[in-house]
UniProtKB/TrEMBL annotation, chain A:
Keywords assigned: Heme, Iron, Metal-binding
Name recorded for this polypeptide: Cytochrome C
Keyword Iron: yes
One Pfam family linked to the record: Cytochrom_C
Organism: Aequorivita soesokkakensis
Domain of life: Bacteria
Domain Cytochrome c: 79-168
GO molecular function, one term: electron transfer activity
The keyword Heme belongs to this UniProt entry's keyword annotation: yes
Gene3D superfamilies (alphabetical): Cytochrome c-like domain (1.10.760.10)
Compositionally biased region (Polar residues): 31-40
Region Disordered, residue ranges: 22-50
From TrEMBL, chain B:
NCBIfam families per the UniProt record, alphabetical: nitrous_NosZ_Gp
Protein name: Nitrous oxide reductase
GO cellular-component term (any): cell envelope
Lineage, uppermost ranks: Bacteria, Pseudomonadati, Bacteroidota, Flavobacteriia, Flavobacteriales
PROSITE patterns reported in the protein's UniProt record: COX2, PROKAR_LIPOPROTEIN
Gene Ontology MF annotations: copper ion binding
SUPFAM superfamilies, alphabetized: Cupredoxins, Nitrous oxide reductase, N-terminal domain
Species annotation: Aequorivita soesokkakensis
UniProt keywords, alphabetically: Copper, Metal-binding
Length: 168, 655
């Protein structure tokens, strides 16, 4: 019985609180861009970044994942790139257009912005990258929280796709 | 009535306490009763942990097969088999509609009864589960890599496909016997002329050892009895099959009286190896018979239905020495063979005792031609000559027996509502536990093989009455789990089931789980309407048919805006899931479509048809929460008047 009284009290308090909330809302109905109320902890305004994560150039970060080190030969392997294009068409194109932003960023010129290891790791283990790699995290936010799907490419397929990116 | 029930319940509780005390004393628990047990601990599978066994439990009149974990009793999946399932689009999408085709046309329901798992050398191999459709006779094969129905074959000349679907110890055959005898071929005749004119077909359906593909090898045309249940011989009796019969009176009306006249009915012993040899040498008679054979292909993600036209029949009198009758009291239900293959148990449901026949004695009686007459030319062996022993007055209404592989048998008793443990060979009752209520079949994982895993017994009950919170006149069906690892059985858990659980098949999880598929590879998708490359997404018009080749991936459809569809069109959504990651299905549904949603696994293509009836702009959306942007996974189709000239076009994004 005591417990019931306690619960009732809690419910009553909750009801009061929510009533209060409603009133406040009414006051400021449809005002967009309202200033935070005094009761909210003021958020740190993030410093306005000049470059978007997708345009950030970082040629040292290798990301997180199975690929630790990858040296690209100077010459593009056209046969490998052709295979990569086939893989790309079936497994990547639904979200990545080769040369323009779509659901995700375009891979054109990606090697001017990212290390080969980072690219491979993003393809092979996007879940881990989104959790642990700061750049991948930032990209997720830039792209509206739409997470990159793990398309279960083999390492060989991912390497072929990377070679295809070099031709774009 | 209520008072009676209350008294009964109290009595049972008292009985339970008393028996617990007995058991407790032995274990030194000093009569703390149920509270002293650690039943909860025994069935607790901690969050994130896996169960030790799979249990495939028949869905009864739901027509499906459910997948549970043991010991937790948690439900993992309901595999659609014989009935349409809107959740999974089974029998609704264009790909699976052929699976429910029969010689009677599309039949969207059946009554599923007895699952059995494939075996190699008499041990469970965990490749397939077979289950019978009782009403419109069919046998289904479920693939345990996908946990989906891969094949359904109709059984002609059969009616009430009940003594099914039991498999031989190398999965050579899945056997389907008829419960109701019928005129064969079917014809217009007076019902009262049943006796002597109807026949009972026992069908031996071969199973391809590689693909699992089924084909009716032969049908044995038996006298017009009711063939109730069956089991294969194993080990020493491998090559034989045993069927219980009732209504040897051949009554055609008021069977509850008229089919209970004979003191003994029969167990039919069929030497299928002998008949197989006869058939392989050109024996048997081909007769016209229309039946559907439906096969689902994992690469085209599509089923095909083929109508077959004839079947090979065998008259048992044409194969001397192939069929004998073992007299068995009285209207036996379950027909169960112990793991050694020596003992054949006839669970005479109207008999006071449980009858056990000896395979060795049966062979000797045949050898010595000790016959006690014949039925329609089939020799009847002498009861005393084949009897191994009887379990004396073990309970009321025995239905079915399972074995633990340690020399014990467990028989379910419907009327006295209990599970009785007895010793194979000495026939002494060693333990009994109540079941709540009116148990039908029981199941021990591997209990129908040479190598049972005798740790748990599952009773499948016909009545639950007061065991769960009431839900109106219709209450849940239920199973109960007993620990049988000790001398005494211990009731651990009640759990609800789907439909009426007739029978189940259990298997250690590690045999099956490692083969479970995670995705279908897009590269292996051979669906004729698949869109393998996202660039292939498009819309095509052929007369008034509009084919949408659509892809889906987190979190959009391609295309998601379509115009140029008109009232009166027949719009086919051919949707391919481009995900290649585990557990990322997507769904799709269209407002006003006269069908179910689609639920499409990664790499799979499915199709539904929408016939727009009203002008307007109509939305479709993803029905399976797939990502943080699931709510954004939607699209529109513009429907113009039938005579309009709106151009057919489609798009996604700004393109």
């Amino acid at each position: 019985m005591k417990n019931i009284m306690k619960s009732l009290a809690a419910v009553a308090i909750l009801t009061l609180i929510s009533c209060g909330g409603k009133e406040e809302k009414k006051k400021d109905s449809i005002q967009i861009g309202q200033k935070p109320t005094a009761t909210e902890t003021p958020k740190e305004e993030p410093a306005v970044t000049e470059t978007k994560p997708s345009e950030t150039i970082d040629l040292t970060n290798k990301g997180v994942g199975p690929i630790k080190n990858l040296e690209l030969p100077a010459e593009i392997d056209q046969a490998m790139a052709a295979k990569g294009m086939e893989v790309y068409k079936t497994k990547c194109m639904a979200c990545h257009k080769p040369d323009k932003k779509f659901i995700g960023p375009a891979p054109k010129d990606i090697l001017k912005r990212r290390t080969p290891e980072w690219i491979m790791n993003m393809i092979l283990d996007p879940e881990d990258m989104i959790q642990k790699d700061p750049l991948a995290k930032a990209l997720l936010i830039e792209f509206n929280g739409s997470p990159m799907a793990n398309q279960n490419l083999t390492e060989e397929e991912a390497r072929q796709v990377l070679e295809y990116f070099r031709t774009l | 009535m209520k008072r009676t029930i209350n008294i009964l319940v109290s009595l049972i509780m008292v009985a339970g306490l008393v028996s617990c005390n007995n058991g407790g004393d032995k274990k030194g628990n000093k009569g703390k009763g149920g509270l002293a047990t650690n039943a909860a601990e025994k069935v607790y599978v901690a969050p994130g942990e896996h169960d030790e066994f799979y249990a495939f439990i028949s869905g009864g009149f739901s027509g499906q097969l459910s997948v549970y974990g043991l010991p937790s009793g948690r439900l993992f999946k309901v595999i659609p088999v014989f009935s349409q399932d809107a959740e999974k689009a089974w029998g609704y999408n264009e790909e699976t509609k052929p699976m429910l085709e029969t010689s009677y046309g599309f039949v969207p329901w059946d009554d599923s009864h007895h699952p059995d798992i494939s075996q190699t050398n008499g041990e469970l191999d965990g490749r397939w589960v077979f289950i019978n459709g009782n009403n419109t006779p069919r046998i289904a094969r479920i693939d345990l890599t996908t946990f989906e129905t891969a094949e359904i074959i109709e059984v002609p000349n059969s009616a009430g496909n009940h003594s099914s679907s039991f498999i031989t110890e190398n999965t050579e055959y899945v056997v389907a016997g008829t419960r109701f005898s019928v005129p064969i071929p079917q014809r217009d005749m007076p019902i009262k002329d049943y006796k002597g004119n109807f026949k009972g077909a026992l069908s031996f359906i071969s199973v391809d050892p590689e693909s699992g593909r089924m084909a009716i090898k032969f049908q044995l045309m038996m006298p017009g009895f009711d063939y109730d249940l069956s089991h294969p011989g194993r080990d020493k009796s491998h090559g034989w099959f045993f069927f219980t019969t009732y209504n040897t009176e051949e009554a055609n009306t008021l069977l509850e009286v008229n089919a209970s006249q004979n003191d003994k009915d029969f167990i039919a012993a069929v030497n299928w190896k002998k008949i197989e040899e006869y058939v392989n040498n050109g024996g048997g008679i081909k007769v016209p018979a229309k039946y559907a054979h439906n096969v689902y292909d994992d690469e085209t993600h599509t089923a095909t239905s083929t109508m077959m036209n004839e079947v090979l029949t065998v008259n048992p009198l044409d194969v001397p020495g192939a069929v004998y009758f073992l007299p068995t009291p009285k209207s036996p239900h379950g027909c169960d063979v112990d793991p050694t293959g020596e003992y054949i148990v006839g669970n005479g449901k109207l008999s006071a005792d449980l009858t056990v026949h000896s395979f060795t004695k049966m062979l000797a009686a045949i050898e010595n031609k000790k016959f006690d007459g014949e039925a329609y030319g089939i020799p009847i062996l002498k009861f005393e000559d084949v009897l191994a022993g009887t379990v004396k007055q073990p309970g009321l209404g025995p239905l079915h027996t399972e074995f633990d592989g340690k020399g014990n048998a467990y028989t379910t008793f419907f009327i006295s509502s209990e599970v009785v443990k007895w010793k194979v060979g000495t026939w002494e009752v060693v333990d009994r536990q109540p079941a709540y209520y009116s148990v039908g079949h029981g199941m021990i994982p591997g209990g129908n093989s040479r190598k049972p895993f005798g740790k748990y017994f599952v009773s499948m009950n016909k009545i639950t009455k007061d065991r769960y919170l009431p839900t109106g006149p219709e209450v849940t069906q239920s199973a109960q789990l007993y620990d049988i690892s000790g001398d005494k059985m211990e009731l651990l858990l009640d759990f609800p089931t789907i439909g009426e659980p007739h029978y189940a098949a259990g298997i250690p999880a590690d045999i099956v789980a490692k083969n479970s598929r995670q995705i279908f590879k897009l590269a292996e998708n051979k669906h004729p309407y698949a869109t393998i490359s996202d660039g292939g997404a498009r819309v095509e018009r052929k007369g008034n048919e509009v084919h949408i080749y659509m892809t889906m991936i987190r979190s959009h459809f391609n295309p998601d805006n379509i115009e140029g569809v008109k009232v009166g069109d027949k719009v086919f959504f051919h949707v391919t899931n481009h995900e290649q990651d585990y557990d990322v299905p997507h769904g799709i549904s269209m407002i006003g479509a006269n069908t179910s949603e689609l639920l499409i696994m990664p790499g799979q293509t499915e199709t539904f048809v929408w016939e727009p009836k009203q002008v307007g702009v109509w939305p479709f959306y993803c029905t399976d929460f797939c990502s943080a942007l699931h709510q954004e996974m939607q699209g529109y189709i513009r429907v113009s008047p039938a005579n309009s000239s709106t151009e057919l076009k489609w798009s996604l994004g700004e393109d």
